[in-house]
Design brief:
single chain, 249 residues, 2 strands
Length: 249
């Protein structure tokens, strides 16, 4: 029986039963992986800024090209495991009455997260597989609003310039780390450019395909000309004018 059939929703007595059902039923597994990924993306977006999320997406996308990407770059910005597990538990809770109840592979009082991390039995191994599949699905979809419109930006080099300017670099990452390239120009205005890019992200998020394409193209042109002032001015143009009080009659 599909996990969702018309108006009927399958329920499970506990997390362990749910996970083991995923091991036997690909339809249930696919639905759970999708919900975990969705909730993880939302949770990480609530934890990190847009420019940090762009950094995660950039490294996840181009890191393998540079030969340096081993894990999801979200770990560079926070303890992402502590963000992921509540998202996974929330997704499982939607089809259970909670994580209580007896299961042969999950004895009462034994923490399910520990079982999954240690993969000490079949339940742990299945849980780890679901964990990894959901995380990979979330990373593939991207975490930032900018990355979500990437497919609408036809020029890869143009898009990369906008992402490089707009991302926040993790504080502990070495300046020569190829996963996080610097600005695509030689300039002394890096701080000003990034501050202006933050204005752009604050006022243009979530980005439409049209906004992303326009911004990427314009920033790319200014970068080719080493025109830092042009980039700053363009980004700053998104800052709405301060509200002025209406004249009194």
């Amino acid at each position: 029986m599909p996990e969702e059939s018309g108006m009927t929703t399958d329920m499970y007595p506990n997390y362990a039963t749910y996970l083991m059902t995923c091991n036997d039923d690909p339809r249930v597994r696919k639905a759970l992986v999708s919900r975990i990924a969705e909730r993880f993306r939302a949770a990480l977006a609530g934890r990190l800024s847009q420019s940090q999320l762009i950094g995660v997406d950039y490294a996840n996308t181009y890191g393998p090209v540079f030969g340096r990407q081993l894990n999801c770059a979200s770990h560079d910005y926070c303890d992402a495991n502590l963000v992921f597990w509540p998202a996974m538990a929330e997704a499982m809770s939607e089809r259970t009455d909670g994580n209580g109840g007896h299961h042969p592979l999950h004895e009462p009082g034994h923490d399910l997260l520990d079982i999954i991390v240690s993969q000490e039995n079949e339940l742990g191994r299945v849980g780890a597989e679901i964990w990894n599949e959901a995380w990979a699905a979330a990373a593939l979809n991207g975490f930032s609003s900018l990355w979500s419109v990437k497919e609408g930006v036809p020029a890869e080099s143009t898009f990369k310039v906008l992402a490089e300017v707009s991302m926040t670099l993790p504080p502990h990452v070495a300046p020569d780390d190829p996963r996080y390239p610097g600005l695509p120009m030689i300039t002394d205005a890096e701080d000003e450019i990034r501050a202006a890019a933050q204005v752009f992200l604050d006022h243009a998020t979530p980005l439409s395909v049209a906004d992303a394409l326009e911004a990427a193209t314009i920033v790319h042109q200014f970068a080719d000309q080493d025109d830092a002032d042009g980039i700053i001015g363009y980004f700053a143009s998104y800052d709405p004018a301060p509200q002025r009080p209406l004249p009194r009659p």
